[in-house]
């Protein structure tokens, strides 16, 4: 491999482009194996998740969740009679973003022995990239540049100065009226957050909410949002947007109606961040994802890796970090001539991306899913049975909230007699999800699950109820 540098030593063994959660983990896991690593970052070390996505959005959501949970309990309801203190919630959110400063993350890079190069990186020739006009060489390069929001082509939208998810997670005050465009994960979470913080929210969705989930998830979230006062409009799309001189935004819909708000949030999906990255030099179309194998090696190369949102496999921090652990270690192993464990479920592959991607949507109720929905399983041709149970009938759930509303569903692969997918919707179900992830990744036979006894009285007793609904083995 040294021949690629015409006799001169490369600057690094590995250069990672993008110091989001994923890039940081690629660098860390590679550096721990003793190779020389640098990371390039054009904005803040810590990436989207830390400053404009996961952390601030969850901080914005949490206070409303806690207040409503208290209001659902007789006895506690009487003790909690006020409204949220919005400036205090926003100030608490700011602490979770470290006030949008990355000093702590930079200290961690230093302590991990990873060099930081500030600037925008572009691939130029194999194993070489340009940052601020200087060429850096490495034996391997890992791209972890994340994703960027998609702005739909709606007349007037771009010039109406819309909010993206960055503005919606970092705003310093609640707009009096907010229109949210897009009924996916970000749209439903941010509609919940800003409605909790006092905004008068209208949520527009061209299809059912959360359509990649089991249908009951979107139905329960729609009902709950409406009960919170959100005007959820399904099956409509904007035909035009106009912001007047006073800053008021008027959005015209295809049913002829108009919505007047102070801000419009666009949360209509994201695309891989590859537009200005030089990916054409490795045969990819700028703006499209970098396709990879299960070790995150980019198709058609033997030195370039793509990890996290940028490879399009799962736009989630924890799943990207899982890929990063595998990629960091396999890069180090390949560069140092070590053993490579790339068989399915080996230490150097992200096999779970295909079978068990856990995700939690922090609406109220929470939506927690892993593996395949029934529709996805049937589309893959699996021979499946499903079982469902009303979480409101579980004693542990009744203790969490008076009139608890929630639902659970398992998708069972009958040929392998294991769980292929699980979905839980309800208050406080997020931490229940990992039990299902373990059952799917561990391919635990259904019959054996009868020996995994949930504690009484917890929400996890829904596992027993689901098994009883499915039927006890002979
Ligand atoms: C509103 C919102 C809420 C979310 N909430 C959750 C959640 O609760 N849980 C969850 O798991 N996921 C959540 N996500 C998804 C999560 O944010 C992403 O999956 C995660 O940030 C991806 O990490 P990454 O490291 O791949 O990319 P990013 O976090 O986007 O980091 C990429 C980094 O690369 C840098 N960069 C880009 N191009 C270059 C370049 N050419 N040169 C140098 N640096 C460059 C960027 O500045 C950035 O710092 C949320 C997303 C949004 C939008
Ligand atoms: N809790 C979490 O883990 C969390 C939270 C937020 C975001 N995320 C991640 O970020 C990713 C992006 O989130 P997102 O909500 O932006 O995307 P998404 O794909 O979840 O939802 C986008 C929504 O916008 C709609 N849409 C797309 N184009 C449209 C158009 N032209 N007009 C009207 N509606 C349109 C889609 O039908 C969909 O309902 C998600 O895939 C998710 O992985 C995760």
UniProtKB/TrEMBL annotation:
Residues 357-463 form the Pyridine nucleotide-disulphide oxidoreductase dimerisation domain. Binds 1 FAD per subunit. FAD binds at residues 58, 145-147, 309. NAD(+) binds at residues 182-189, 269. Keywords: FAD, Flavoprotein, NAD, Nucleotide-binding. It comes from the Bacteria. Its cofactor is FAD. Disulfide bonds join 49-54. One of its GO terms (molecular function) is NAD(P)H dehydrogenase (quinone) activity. Residues 12-319 form the FAD/NAD(P)-binding domain. Belongs to the class-I pyridine nucleotide-disulfide oxidoreductase family. This is Pyridine nucleotide-disulfide oxidoreductase. The lineage of its organism: Bacteria, Bacillati, Actinomycetota, Actinomycetes, Micrococcales.
């Amino acid at each position: 491999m040294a021949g690629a540098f015409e006799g001169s030593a490369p600057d690094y063994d590995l250069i990672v482009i993008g110091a989001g959660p994923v890039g940081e983990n690629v660098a860390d896991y590679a550096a721990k194996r003793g190779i020389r690593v640098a990371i390039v970052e054009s904005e803040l070390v810590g990436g989207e998740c830390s400053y404009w996505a996961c952390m601030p959005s969850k901080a914005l959501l949490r206070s409303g969740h806690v207040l409503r949970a208290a209001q659902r309990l007789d006895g506690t309801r009487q003790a909690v009679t006020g409204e949220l203190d919005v400036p205090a919630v926003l100030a608490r959110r700011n602490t979770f973003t470290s006030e949008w400063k990355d000093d702590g993350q930079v200290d961690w890079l230093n302590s991990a022995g990873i060099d930081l190069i500030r600037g925008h990186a572009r691939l130029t020739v194999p194993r070489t990239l340009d940052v601020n006009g200087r060429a850096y060489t490495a034996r391997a390069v890992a791209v972890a540049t994340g994703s960027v929001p998609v702005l739909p082509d709606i007349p007037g939208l771009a010039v109406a100065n819309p909010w993206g998810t960055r503005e919606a997670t970092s705003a310093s005050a609640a707009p009096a009226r907010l229109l949210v465009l897009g009924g996916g994960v970000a749209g439903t979470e941010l509609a919940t957050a800003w409605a909790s913080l006092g905004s008068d929210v209208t949520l527009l969705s061209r299809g059912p909410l959360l359509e990649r989930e089991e249908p009951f998830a979107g139905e329960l979230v729609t009902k709950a949002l409406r009960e919170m006062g959100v005007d959820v409009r399904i099956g409509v799309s904007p035909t035009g947007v106009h912001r007047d001189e006073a800053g008021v935004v008027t959005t015209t819909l295809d049913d002829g109606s108009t919505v007047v708000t102070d801000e419009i949030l666009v949360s209509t999906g994201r695309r891989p961040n590859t537009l200005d990255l030089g990916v054409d030099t490795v045969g990819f179309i700028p703006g499209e994802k970098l396709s990879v194998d299960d070790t995150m090696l980019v198709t058609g190369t033997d030195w370039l890796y793509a990890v996290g949102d940028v490879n399009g496999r799962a736009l989630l921090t924890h799943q990207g970090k899982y890929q990063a652990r595998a990629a960091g270690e396999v890069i180090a192993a390949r560069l140092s001539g070590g053993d490579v464990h790339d068989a399915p479920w080996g230490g150097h592959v992200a096999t779970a991306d295909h079978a068990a991607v856990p995700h939690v949507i922090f609406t109220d109720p929470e939506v927690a899913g892993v593996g395949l929905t029934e529709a996805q399983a049937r589309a893959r041709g699996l021979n499946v049975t499903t079982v469902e149970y009303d979480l409101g009938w579980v004693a542990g759930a009744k203790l969490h909230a008076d009139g608890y509303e929630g639902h659970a569903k398992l998708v069972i692969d009958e040929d392998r007699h294991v769980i292929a997918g699980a979905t839980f919707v309800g208050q406080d179900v997020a931490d229940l999800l990992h039990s299902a992830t373990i059952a799917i990744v561990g391919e635990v036979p259904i019959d054996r699950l009868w020996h995994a006894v949930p504690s009484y009285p917890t929400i996890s007793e829904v596992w027993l109820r689901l098994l009883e609904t499915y039927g006890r083995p002979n």
